[in-house]
Amino acid sequence: MGDGYNLQQLKAHILPLSNAGSWDVAVKEWSLVGIHEADEPEACPCGHFPIIEMCSIHNRVTGHSTEVGNICVKRFLGLRSDLIFTAIKRIRKDPDKSLNADAIAFFHERRVLNEWEYNFCQNTMRLRSLTSAQLGKRRDINRKVLAAIEKRGFQGPQ
Ligand SMILES: [Zn+2]
């Protein structure tokens, strides 16, 4: 492909951490458990550098975890980490905007959002005009999410 995302090199990193020997099956063992934006550019196990949008992935069978760049997580593992980064970019640009469905589910699962916030996000996601109290709550939630992904190694519970 010549764009610096090397599937063979990624396989060499992921397969030894997986139970399945076949790549197509091995990728199904992995879940997205964390995302963060690196302060300093990092390298993806595929060899691509620089990467800012990093994902933590966890193998549900072997219990191993590793970090892979957002592009490879989507392209080679088929996990939609890109949709969560899209939401992050949107709320950073405009804190009055809502998280999207993928981000709401993800940050609730990772326990960044409590039950009340989870329900609030769902109920207000598509509302264009919010009361000032609702808007204040949305901004609080957005701040909390942005703070969570800035913490290196944020994962929440497995
Ligand atoms: Zn990569």
Keywords:
elongated, alpha+beta, 158 residues, 3-stranded antiparallel sheet, binds zinc ion, 2 domains, 3 strands
Number of helices: 7
Average pLDDT value? 93
Spatial arrangement of strands, main beta sheet: 1-2-3
Element-level helix/strand string: HHEEEHHHHH
Number of domains: 2
Helicity level, as a percent range?
A: 40-55%
Shape: elongated
Rg over CA atoms, rounded to whole Å, is 17 Å
Q: Based on helices, strands and strand pairing, what is the structural class?
A: alpha+beta
Beta-strand percent range: 15-25%
Bound molecules: zinc ion
Detail the poorly predicted runs: none
Distance between the termini: 34 Å
Total number of strands: 3
Question: Could you walk me through the main structural features you see in this protein, from its secondary elements to its overall organization?
Answer:
By secondary structure, the protein is an alpha+beta fold. Helices cover about 45% and strands about 15% of the residues. The chain has 2 domains: about 5-80, no CATH class; about 85-150, no CATH class. The chain contains 7 helices and 3 strands, in the order H-H-E-E-E-H-H-H-H-H. The protein has a 3-stranded antiparallel beta sheet with strand order 1-2-3. Bound molecules: zinc ion (ZN).
